[in-house]
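Appendix B, example 12.
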Amino acid sequence: MQPKAVPTVTEYHDNLIDRLFIWLFSWKMSQALGAGTQVSGYGGFVDLSKQIVQGRDAQQQQAIVAQVLQSLVPAPVLWTIRTFFAPTRLVCVLNAWFAAKMFEWLVGPCEVVVAKIELADGTVRSQPSGVQIEKCRYLADSGCVGMCVNMCKVPTQAFFTEKFGIPLTMIPNFEDLSCEMIFGKIPPLPEADVAYQQPCLKGQCPTANLTAAACPKLG
């Protein structure tokens, strides 16, 4: 019998800027949650996420993350961007570049890629407004489909699409833990989003329900 392959564990070496972002987001999450964590660094950030999930449904989890995200960007800045910066090709491309540079501490190594965007007239345009995440650090550390969707994908999509006025769709790959962010692409409704049909990650999630068709935490 062939021995079972051991999942590869990626080592991250957070620099000073990475640690500052981890601390800032963790602090904001602690404020929204009303509780802290004894775990330091990125592990503490994930631990706070798990605390938010406990005893809350999908909508309540998403609401807390939305509160955290909005607390990081002043309301006048959101209004200015939403009012004066239409989601043009250039704006979407710049957002992809910004995301690839600023969010590596959260999701791991990533790069800007060309994505296909369907325009209002039905035509399709190729533009470098996608971000390919090699292996999502958050998904790998949490090991949970529900946390990926409720704590990252859905609130992040809503934040950029509704608060910034720049459409964003995130497409996680639960097979290899990669993900693609596409700026300029309107996110699908939950009933049309395949992420909501994803079962628990076998061997990844400690509370996985392997008999359920989809992860129970998806709501």
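Residues 1-6 have pLDDT under 50 and may be disordered. The longest helix spans residues 145-164.
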